[in-house]
Amino acid sequence: MDAPVPSLDVAPSPHVSAGGLTTASMMREVMIGLLPVCGFAVYRFGPGVLLRLLLAMGLCIGFEALFMGMRGRVSAIRDGSAALTGLIFALTLPPTVPLFVIAVGSLVSIGLGKVVFGGLGQNIFNPAMVGRAFVTAAFPASMSAAAFVPDGMSGATPLTLARAGETLPLVDLTTGHCWGSMGEVSAVACLLGGGYLMWRGAMGWQIPLAVLATSVLFGVFRHGVDPTAPWGWTHELMAGGLCFGAFFIATDPVSSPVSHSGRLMYGSGVAILTWFFRSFSGYPEGFMFAVLLMNAATPLINQLHVTRPVGGHV
Amino acid sequence: MSAAAPLRQSIRAEGTGWFPRGIHPPEEKLHSRYRPVMSLPAPAEVRLPLSQHAGAPASLIVKSGEEVAQGQCIAEAVGMVSAPLHAPFDAKVGRPVKITLPNGRRVDAISLTRKPEGADPGPRLWQELCSDAKSFATCLEMPADIILDMIRSAGLVGMGGAAFPTAVKLSPPKDKPIQCLLVNGCECEPYLTADDRLMREAPAAVLAGAVLAAKVLNAGRIDIGVEDNKPEAIKALRSWRPDWPGRMRVRGLPAKYPMGGEKQLIRAVYDKVIPTGGLPMHVGVAVINVSTAAAIAHAVRFRRPLTHRVVSVTGPGVTQPNNLWVPIGTGSDQLIEFCKGLTPSVGRVLSGGPMMGMALSELTVPVTKGSGGIVALRAEETKRPEETACVRCGRCVDACPLHLTPARLGQAVRHRRWDLAARENLMACMECGCCAYQCPAGIPLVQLMRTGKTELRKRVTRAGAA
Lengths: 314, 466
Ligand code: SF4
Ligand code: SF4
Fold this sequence. Notes:
heterodimer, A: mainly alpha, Ammonium transporter fold, B: alpha/beta, binds iron/sulfur cluster
């Protein structure tokens, strides 16, 4: 029995790993979760949406390849995170947003949001929100509340209406018969996609739960303070991209805390800040700023939430 | 608090069979779980490392060229924590050699060459171990101190991996009375089936050994924890209730890795939490492996020192997976050869299971008292995701049975932030591998934990010296 001795490969334990689970597959799951949202946006606002979503994704991939190529790490684009950033960024824009805004936003998302920090995993801020904040500041005309309502149409976004003391029927809000960014208009589509992600375990439930629950709490609180306000907690929950943000923006893992308790704190923080911006600032769509601020607080939250090991601290 | 209070508590303590977090890797037991234990024909030579156990290496008491009989002691225990070694067959003592154990430790060993005319004791020893309840019932009357002496002189050590001398474990300090004996039959590592087969084929030995150990400990309760993916083993163990005044129960537990970890098992069975850095005895429990229990019965009933054990040789990388009864000290290559060799597609051969076992760089490494399996995997099984940056997805946190934050620990070690690593309880890590198993970014978390722990230990020693 002189079988050739096979060359043995030596590596530290564990010697097996969960099948098929990679960074790329996680990103893919999130994209699948976004399908209902994208589908609804195309149905609601027409094929122009498709063009814009694809453009943003393509540009983000391109910029990532360019920047990472300059640093000799082209392979990094295979993880799919750039495409996801582009998709999420575009979904937060008005349906008729000019294409150059998308281009600039994609550049900023990838360049300033991600690459300057060293690429995926190193960034402090949610890249899509960095791009979004930039275009909000740079192109106020394209991004103003009025921009969300196409020319020749009457109406306003739900949050603008709310400022004026008016309100929309809840059913329109949930099913997306209102004006708003491409991704945010249908809470039902967001819940559907978010539910898929939870079911697949593609992301933790802590952040969405914290965001939604805290928003309900503050919605109830607002109503308690001012019973004549046109908004109940249901509106708080269903309007202005809260569902979209809770499931798809705030959950960006890289820029959010890693422990369960940290995530709950982070999610609540996002909701409280959103509520604050909605109530008191000039930007009713405050979710973006809330996320960016909480991103900045994430290192601190991580430090505060050292998990207590089973059996107590060493 | 009076001494009796915790006693009563522990005896009544009931766990739900659950522990938080952990993972469900594919069990892969089918390769070998229906293969009855076969006695490996005695090899021409065994090489016995003098240090197969935790504690001081044994010291040789025979000289090169001397002839020794089966079961004769060839190396004595040195000091309190140690264990003697015995000859597995009639043999001639060869030269002392150095061998590298799978964990990388280079240790002294002694080579024994089998006398060609000597009989192969393997089949007889295995038959003894598989004796029925009646046969084992007779030895349960033995007084505790004599049982303990027999366990000590038989060279018994924990056979689940840690290889801690059993006699030491069964003599806890006076102020730490043990109320419960927990017999670990979980075998939660994928692939391995040695304990499963042992429980099915030698249930009386396992039960008798458990009672003997409980007698030595003066424990009031015995629980045998078996994952419920081994229904035949559970049934076999329930077929006999040894005559013993205490409580005795065979408990089926949901299959989850690492159910066989002491902390997890104690949580599942008694709902008790061992303080970080503590031992089972701190909550009034002693844990022994089912193989150890069977070896105790073998030693007490048949006066057999520990010279053989059951080893699973399994995985898609071996041609004919088997469970083998082998002399300790046999080279792994001999076991593999008996199993018709490795398949051409084999990639990695492990001593132990895939979660915590160690990859072998050479196949001549001998089977030791604590090694229950040789697992041969193909490249397909050992493939891990290409390493990318940590995306802080938190899967490692969801998996860690000790509730650490592996992502942050790994990062702290990478950046050599020892202060952070210490603050986030790196030293509590038991290197179970759940975190690395789950990580989608393919980060070698366990390796980082080990590096970090070594460094932190060094720092403690240095600080102690200064
Ligand atoms: S599982 Fe891996 S990628 Fe995810 S947080 Fe843990 S270390 Fe990072
Ligand atoms: S190896 Fe350590 S950090 Fe990783 S899961 Fe196990 S105990 Fe937790």
